[in-house]
Write a structure and sequence with these properties.
Blueprint lengths: L23 E7 L3 H12 L2 E6 L8 E8 L2 E8 L5 H9 L2 E9 L2 H10 L4 E10 L2 E9 L5 E6 L12 E2 L11 E10 L5 H10 L4 E6 L10 E8 L6 E8 L6 H9 L3 E9 L2 H10 L10 H4 L1 H5 L6 H7 L2 E5 L2 E7 L10 E8 L9 H15 L3
Parallel strand pairs: 1-4, 5-8, 10-13, 14-17
Antiparallel strand pairs: 1-5, 2-3, 2-9, 3-4, 6-7, 7-8, 10-14, 11-12, 12-13, 15-16, 16-17
């Protein structure tokens, strides 16, 4: 696929960025059992207990556990009764991402600017308050049943937000070096990538900074297309994938089939020491895609000199790629659910701003091997 950049269209952040974002505030997952999911993420990924909301805090229809590691915050939410939108979401999609919450200085203005540009309102500006101050929330819909919440915290000094209490636990595993959300990837249906690119451009003021077509992301059997959308300061990036024609079913098609619609395919999480992080994650039971030894035979000829020893990267299955600004190290987990839907990427950037184009063939062949084992290729 051809890769293009939009370097000629730099943001004037003073005059053009009508939706200044400060990064990802949190990612909320709708799950079948939030208590068990929280224990899993603490055990396997090294998150710490942060906050809880449920019947004990006045929230009668659901429970939410908030876990954190450095600047990475996950919220795990479960319905307590049937005939509930959360229960319906889990029944349809399985466990998955519902909310990509974005930090803003003014949630009311964020909602006004996006809805007047065509965004469909999910939550009108709403003030939540307690003795620690107030949080303002608003939100809009995006692809599938995924939503963006705008979170304004400048007048809040509490732990997470009103309605939550501190969650204290005697079980607090050590962290694994996960730092923050690098990017989140969405899978959309056939011929829907460009409409959603247009949504992010027109409604949220993002720019298309990279484009990959089916010549770039393809194997003998399957292909997909992708465009990377970024906000003005580059703190928030959302690649959008759609299927492309191939001999067999692509990984995006498999996702769409099992998720029953469009949604977040994977969350990419940054680390400063990928060898240490992945070694620890593997010890705790996280499974990653298997990369053949042949990938490493000439990888340094392609990417040049790197700081790391190649042997541990090969042993762990970590991929390497380089762009004009540096190189990156990345690895992809197997699906975290029984359905082949949501997975995670662990990424360490050594200057690189790209997304590993040189690794696409090895990555997608690894994904196809997993699909074939499931009988879905």
């Amino acid at each position: 696929m051809e890769t293009t950049t939009s370097s000629s269209k730099k943001f004037d952040t003073v005059t053009n960025d009508f939706l200044p974002l400060q990064g990802t505030d949190y990612v909320e997952f709708y799950v079948g059992n939030a208590k068990q999911a929280a224990h899993f993420y603490k055990t396997a990924f090294g998150f710490q207990s942060l906050a809880y909301a449920g019947p004990e805090t006045g929230m009668k229809d659901k429970v939410s556990y908030v876990i954190r590691q450095h600047k990475l915050t996950f919220v795990l939410t479960t319905a307590l009764r049937k005939n509930n939108p959360i229960a319906d979401h889990v029944s349809k999609h399985g466990d998955g991402v519902k909310v990509l919450a974005l930090k803003v200085d003014d949630a009311t203005r964020a909602w006004e600017e996006t809805t007047k540009r065509g965004g469909k309102s999910y939550l009108e500006p709403t003030i939540l308050s307690d003795t620690d101050g107030e949080v303002v929330l608003s939100g809009i819909h995006t692809y599938g049943e995924t939503v963006h919440l705008f979170v304004e915290r400048k007048n809040y000094k509490g732990l997470f937000m009103p309605g939550f209490k501190k969650w204290e636990s005697n079980y607090n595993p050590t962290d694994t070096g996960l730092l923050y959300v690098d990017h989140c990837v969405g899978n959309v249906d056939w011929n829907q990538m460009n409409p959603w690119v247009k949504f992010y451009e027109e409604v949220m003021g993002f720019k298309n900074i990279l484009t990959f077509d089916d010549n770039d992301i393809s194997t003998e059997y399957s292909a997909l297309m992708s465009k990377v959308m970024s906000n003005g300061n580059g703190y928030v990036k959302f690649p959008i994938n759609e299927p492309a024609e191939g001999k067999k079913k692509s990984q995006v098609e498999e996702y769409l089939d099992f998720y029953n619609g469009e949604g977040v395919q994977h969350v990419a999480i940054a680390t400063n020491d990928i060898v240490k992080t992945v070694t620890e994650l593997q010890k705790r039971g996280i499974e990653f895609l298997n990369i053949p030894a042949s990938y490493y035979a000439n990888v340094l000829d392609r990417v040049g000199e790197i700081d790391e020893d190649l042997a541990p990267l090969q042993e762990l299955g970590i991929l390497i790629d380089r762009d004009e600004e540096g190189y990156l190290l990345q690895i992809f987990s197997k699906p975290l659910e029984d359905r082949p839907t949501l997975f995670f990427e662990i990424i360490q950037r050594k200057g690189a701003k790209s997304f590993g184009k040189g690794n696409f063939k090895a990555l997608f062949e690894a994904l196809e091997r997993e699909q074939d084992a499931r009988g879905n290729l």
